[in-house]
What we know:
Elements: H1 3-7, H2 30-54, H3 60-76, H4 84-97, H5 102-115, H6 118-138, H7 146-227, H8 233-262, H9 280-289, E1 294-298, H10 308-328, E2 334-341, E3 345-352, H11 367-378, E4 382-387, E5 393-399
Parallel strand pairs: 1-2
Antiparallel strand pairs: 2-3, 3-5, 4-5
Helix pairs in contact: 2-3, 2-5, 3-5, 4-5, 4-6, 5-6, 5-7, 6-7, 7-8, 7-10, 7-11, 10-11
Amino acid sequence: MTRTDRQRWLLPSHLAGPGGPGAARPRRTVRDWVVDTTVFLLAAFFGLLAADTSARYNGDLVNVLDQIGGALACCALWLRRRWPTGLAAVLAVAGALVPAAAGAMLAALFSVAVRRPFRDIAWILALALAGAVATVFVRPDPETGAALGIVLGVSLTLMVTAWGMLVRARRQLVEALRERADRAEAEAELRAAQAQRLAREAIAREMHDVLAHRLTLLSVHAGALEFRPDAPPEQIARAAGVIRDSAHDALQDLREIIGVLRAPGEDGGGDRPQPTLATLGALVDESREAGTEVVLDTTVDDPGSVPAATGRTVYRIAQEGLTNARKHAPGAPVTVVLRGRPGEGLTVEVRNPAPDGPVPHVPGSGQGLIGLSERAALAGGRLDHGPAPGGGFALVAWLPWPS
């Protein structure tokens, strides 16, 4: 059931269409025909009972007029979806004069109570109550008496109105619960989409941090082979070995990330351990083997005491700094400084001077530094980068180290 269809439970037919007031009245559904026919038959049944009772103490002409008035009132119920308020008001007056129209009046009152709030139907209810009292005196029934007739008429009118208001309240509650469920489902889908987006961003940052270092080695050494085809065989063999090892390690890292994607519920997601501060020395050695002069200055005597998440962030920062230095300042020495103690935090610096010769063009987007800034912020720290005062480039980060 669409939202427009659900609104037809609470609004009259001429207001329930997609266009609102003034729009074309929607056609009756099968359910509408069943309900309208049932209401018509019930109103006709009660009208016949009232006409039969009235025939006992009224003349033939009055009985004929009662039957005609009751039939017209019952037929008018087919208009209750288009003019519920006006029809209920007219039948409230007619019910006071024609007992056979009482059933149609109650049906119209019930319909308007279902479709309108109480403040809009209070005057119709008052008119119906006045008609229920007036009919006792206009068309008295000798068998019931005035007091009993007033009690029966007022009670029946109030009961039908309360029933209609109860149906309206229940439909509003169902509609509110349905809208709340739809909204909750939409919010859940939005949260799932946001979680997927964040996961993709995290995976993209991780792939950049892991693979950029390896691929930079490939690019630098492949470029050296391209521009130095006459290099000694030892240098060519060494560069080829670095290219082979870097390609192998890049494939291993890529398999690890793909393993995380295939089994997101597992910690680690791969066979290879995650880097920590204890593996920073291996990273420096790898860069030295690739031909970069790297100086590691650290005061952290026990890398294993550093939290794993903090150590991994320091490793990624140093890895990105070494990668950028190899890209944009080939041949320049790089200094990695690590300072800190529990309770004071951990500071890592990666500095390199400006290169002496021309810098080969190596493509880069700067996404690595952006990812590192986000990674440091998530860890509760900060990261600064930019040209150093004496020339070159500096990458400085501070991370919390709980005591």
